[in-house]
Amino acid sequence: MANVLVFTEVHDGRVKPVTLEILGRLHGQTADVAVFGDLDAGQVAELAKHGAQSVHKLKGAGLEKYSPEGYANALSEFIKSKNYDYVFGGATSMGKDMLPRLATKFDAGLASDVVNFTFDGGVFAGTRPLFAGKCLAKVEVTGPKPHFISVRPNALGMSPNPTAGSGSAADVAVSAGDIRATIKEIIKATSTKVDLTEANIIVTGGRAMKNAENFQILDQLADVIGATVGASRAAVDSGFAPHAMQVGQTGKTVAPSLYIACGVSGAIQHLAGMRTSKVIVAINSDPDAPIFTKADYGIVGDLFQIVPIMTEEFKKLLGK
Ligand SMILES: Cc1cc2nc3c(=O)[nH]c(=O)nc-3n(C[C@H](O)[C@H](O)[C@H](O)COP(=O)(O)OP(=O)(O)OC[C@H]3O[C@@H](n4cnc5c(N)ncnc54)[C@H](O)[C@@H]3O)c2cc1C
């Protein structure tokens, strides 16, 4: 049995779902959770339901907002005071930034962007995509412990841990240490939609959208089915959508349950960001578009005709 710490992030008062995905897979191990700041009783109870034993709420001056150095310093101080074999976190923007910093502090190995893992006799073995998702590599971590693992959001899916944890929660005083760079302000995107990397359904527009105004038809479909809207790099470079919406090698990596690609050709760099989606639907006027080789369902036709029809049909189906 391994001793595991799961680092969690709280976004808009919600524990990031990737934490619950990880906890669900840690059945048979001892799993604690660490968070910066506070969690209310309901949030702690939810973590416990998914198997969390102790919830450590790390607090200290300079740690109110994310600080790359401060968080890594404080977490390493906390981890050194315990005896963890593994430290998990989401392969989110923060996780991708912080976990490598943390691993270097322990001179320890990091398995990043893992999409699946098992524990056999308390030993981690994982899978992660390589070469823009063209193949999957099996990864093990050797060397000094703890070993660090980042997990791609939405990749594991929710599988509630059959054994609930005790969910005891306590404050832990930590120090941010020497911070050379301070984040003064975080300006949030105006969108109220779920972040692309965590969205369960994504509707993406490509160059074929022609302009920013036309993205409204994707917004309308997204509103009905509870999706977040993404864009290809061609659409972003053409000024139809902001870079925050870009899916792909130089954009965001997503793994939703349903990915609807509208007027996207399916270039390798785009596929790199979305090929682990569970179900892919492609709408493209060119029957030979490469996206169809990866799509579970393909619709050959004009997206400007098909998307509004889909919106109306979903409205009827969902009673909206
Ligand atoms: C280093 C590097 C990094 C990159 N990173 C990324 C990345 O992160 N993300 C990314 O997306 N790309 C990335 N690219 C760019 C990538 O190679 C492609 O150029 C890009 O993905 C193409 O975008 P697109 O599919 O929207 O446009 P296009 O390739 O122009 O495809 C448009 C598609 O729309 C179809 N179409 C046209 N009109 C309609 C209509 N009315 N109805 C339905 N279908 C229609 C066409 O048949 C075509 O298949 C990167 C490239 C490089 C070199």
Key terms:
8 helices, Rossmann fold, 7-stranded parallel beta sheet, 27% strand, 320 residues, alpha/beta, binds flavin-adenine dinucleotide
Count of runs of 4 or more consecutive helical residues:
8
Shape: elongated
According to CATH, what is the class of the largest domain?
Alpha Beta
Q: Which residues form runs of ≥5 with pLDDT under 50?
A: none
Q: Work out the helicity level.
A: 25-40%
The tally of domains stands at 2
| CATH T-level fold name of the largest domain | Rossmann fold
Largest sheet geometry: 7 strands, parallel
Strand line-up of the largest beta sheet: 7-11-6-1-4-5-12
Structural class: alpha/beta
How far apart are the termini? 49 Å
Question: Count of DSSP E strands?
Answer: 17
Strand content: 25-35%
What integer value in Å does the Rg equal? Answer: 21 Å
Average pLDDT across residues?
A: 94
Order of helices and strands: EEEHEHEHEHEEEEEEEHEHEHEEH
CATH architecture classification name of the largest domain: 3-Layer(aba) Sandwich
Explained architecture:
- With 320 residues, the chain is α/β, with parallel strands linked by helices.
- It folds into 2 domains: 3-173, HUPs (Rossmann fold, 3-Layer(aba) Sandwich); 196-318, Rossmann fold.
- It is built from 8 helices and 17 strands.
- The protein has a 7-stranded parallel β-sheet with strand order 7-11-6-1-4-5-12, sandwiched between helices. Strands 14-13-15-16-17 form a 5-stranded parallel β-sheet. Strands 8-9-10 form a 3-stranded antiparallel β-sheet, with no helix packed on it.
- A hairpin with a 4-residue loop joins strand 9 and strand 10 (135-139).
- Helix 3 (68-80) packs across helix 4 (93-105) and helix 5 runs parallel beside helix 8 (303-318).
- The longest helix is centred in the C-terminal third of the chain and has 16 residues, at 303-318.
- The structure holds flavin-adenine dinucleotide.
- Residues 206-208, 232-235, 246-251, 263-265, 267, 269-270, 273, 283-286, 289, 302-304 line the site of flavin-adenine dinucleotide.
- The site of flavin-adenine dinucleotide has 28 residues, from helix 6, helix 7, strand 16 and helix 8.
